[in-house]
Fold this protein.
Amino acid sequence: MLTRLLDQNRRPLTFVVDEEEITAKQGDTLLTAMLAAGLGHVRHSEFGDGDRAGFCWMGACQDCWVIVEGRGTSRACTTLVEPGMRVLRR
């Protein structure tokens, strides 16, 4: 689980993950917002080795790929949350 310690005063915004509305803070990446919201994982592995919650956190691997409506496959660790964004965890 990811716990937010700093920057509590940033503007809140909402987006949707798999039809669930999530509250994030302005400037959050999808990965940070999803884990801080308690989702537990970002996607399911297509190789059958379970749920994935990011690996490198810097956009060098494919461990946090999600589908962003209107953009397609995106890395959750480098994609900033935008108000109203819709995300699928495959």
About this structure: The chain has one helix and seven strands. The helical segments are 30-36. Residues 68 and 87 are 5 Å apart (CA to CA). Residues 30-36 form the longest helix (7 residues).
